[in-house]
Write a structure and sequence with these properties.
homodimer, 351 residues, alpha+beta, 3-stranded antiparallel sheet, 14 helices, 10 strands, elongated, disordered N terminus, DNA-binding
DNA sequence: GTCTAGCAGTCCCTCTCCGAGAGTGCTAGC
DNA sequence: GCTAGCACTCTCGGAGAGGGACTGCTAGAC
């Protein structure tokens, strides 16, 4: 979780408590934390002068820094990571929020609606940007494929993945095909290739085309031709909600930062790359400040986790906001949403 | 095109030319136009003092105003309307842009892709926000409806409208239905109701349910039940592209305006209402500044036009940006895109 | 040794002031 | 009817001063 190569300097209990207080206070208040502010909490029974000494040590060790000489302290990336890993107390998602989440995700009937709801929930509950990475259709497992004649040479191809993603596409064929042939072609493809990813299927199709039978069996040839046209893979899709929410954050007080932010969003490729990195790891992961190109420019953080459909990892989801975010709430929330979405996707075709 | 009730004061040719120059210069440069700037163009052979007199007249008549005493002049809403109606010279969409537009819209195979492309093109070519209002499914004309069994009690319902909009929805039925019954139900509905809007169909279904035959004919009852579940109407959809583009506009120099802007976008209902007003009228229409609630807060303008599929008006499309926009380019562009999209939608099922 | 009171020093932020610049309206004269 | 010239107004940006918030350091208390 902590890409920094520097070894963290050891801290005694008191130092850790002070560090936790400083970071917690900074996250709540949004302003550099002064020694006096920490002393006033009276939890440690120390004067501001003593706190000052400790804070100077913590700065030396790389966990805090000063925006300018006569200012309070602010966490560094290393500070945040230590806070997340060892100092903060996670706050479980409240029952009320959980119910809200469950009801919204259950109300959706297919995977597209579910992922859309997830992205909205992420943004709504954190007041930050919610992101959900949806796998390219090519990486989903085929459940059904169906061809429907629409008019003359137009055929509608409907692909349903086993996790509930539905994609339809109008294709144009060389000559009109009868409804029954289309149904048979759909059945053939569903039976032959159901349970495989579209990527696999594409590879197998190449083999099937060379098959001797394909030269003689009209239906087989037709099926292959249709599949070739319709099972092309798209790019992975990125849902993003709540970009407007961010404007209420005080860290975006000046316009040049807002511009930077929107440029960062425009370049979705970078965000997709980060979210892809997330697929490999197990649980929630946080990129803070300098950890990544995307987050460093703006002093932002990305907290993300992978979600599954059954055993298969599908994509990842998370939130993007200022580094100063309530990690103690946000991390459990991202975790909960990843679990809830995973379960919903696994359940899609139960009935 | 001009909702103002005030009678426009009559202007002689020279006044109109000066007004046109002032507005044109303001649109290009973005700063209040001084008498000296107009005089320097030497088109009128007048000194800045004379121009000053004329500009003072134009202000009195309500076409120009001064941001403050010692500043140049800026157009009023009335000024812009006069400019659009009578003063500016429209600049036809360049052949290169037209080719670009045609190729992008032709590349899309269904109506959703076409409207999405249109919205992107609007934003890309004007560097402002492109909007496309897509009719509620209920207002589209049914071409085909098809039911596909997916698993157990889940049935996928695919509706294709005659203009090429495709909507699919997973519905859960009480007990598993055989594939053949589903196909027959789809055929029955397509044959009975094809050519009608979904809104009509819903009304007719109510009648059909009371039909005596429905009590005996199993297939008929099944069709009606399926249709009831799947032909529910959604809300009209609003596509919006290029909100980030706007941040590059100098009129959004201060953050409070940016916030207002994003709040305005958030409240899509208002925008939908304006775009709906556009459906009735024939061609391009412009709302400027105080013309509407939406545009007045921010000193923005909306330039929009309806688009059709065949004879039927489908929705509207346009661009949203600062009142200071290049109407001479933008209006022909919106017109061209409305025509191009209309033609494409009419052509969808030609083959 | 550890902690703290007190103090000097640093830096930021805000307010005010002032001058430069741009543009206007008005007047007198061509 | 047009224009040169002038006084006036308003904005904008920079300089400078004062106040406030912290810190680091030192010397002394426990």
């Amino acid at each position: 979780m902590r890409p920094s190569t520097r070894l963290p300097a050891p801290l005694n209990t008191r130092d850790r408590e002070i560090l936790r207080d400083v970071i917690y206070t900074f996250i709540s208040a949004g302003e550099p934390v002064s020694s006096r502010a920490v002393a006033k909490q009276e939890r440690h029974g120390l004067s501001s002068a003593s706190i000052r000494n400790i804070m100077a040590d913590l700065e030396e060790k790389g966990y805090l820094r000063q925006p300018h000489t006569s200012a309070g302290r602010v966490p560094t990336t290393a500070g945040y990571h230590l806070y997340i890993e060892a100092l903060m107390r996670q706050r479980a998602v409240p029952v009320k929020e959980r119910r809200y989440i469950d009801s919204h995700i259950d109300a959706a009937s297919d995977a597209d609606q579910r992922t859309a709801a997830t992205s909205q929930l992420l943004s709504e509950l954190t007041h930050q940007v919610g992101v959900v990475l949806i796998p390219a259709l090519a990486d989903t497992v085929l459940k059904t494929v169906e061809f429907v004649p629409v008019s003359g040479r137009r055929v509608l191809c409907v692909v349903v993945s086993s996790s509930g993603f539905i994609d339809s596409k109008l294709v144009e064929v060389e000559e009109p095909i009868g409804r029954e042939d289309l149904v048979r072609a759909g059945n053939y493809l569903t039976e032959t290739f159901g349970g495989h990813t579209l990527r696999d299927i594409r590879d197998r199709l190449l083999v099937a085309m060379d098959d001797e039978r394909a030269q003689v069996d009209r239906l087989l040839a037709l099926s292959i031709a249709l599949a070739k046209k319709s099972l092309t893979d798209g790019a992975p899709e990125l849902l993003m909600d709540g970009t407007a929410e961010l404007l209420t954050q005080p860290e975006l007080a000046d316009l040049s930062r807002v511009r930077l932010l929107f440029e960062a969003f425009h370049d979705k490729a970078r965000l997709v790359r980060l979210l892809n990195q997330c697929l490999a790891g197990g649980g929630v992961r946080a990129w803070i400040g300098e950890d990544s190109e995307l987050t460093s420019e703006l002093d932002f953080s990305l907290v993300a986790a992978p979600y599954r459909a059954g055993e298969r990892v599908m994509g990842s989801l998370g939130i993007l906001g200022p580094s100063r975010m309530e990690y103690d709430k946000v991390i459990p929330l991202v975790e909960y949403l990843a679990d809830t979405l995973s379960e919903a996707l696994a359940r899609t075709f139960e009935t």
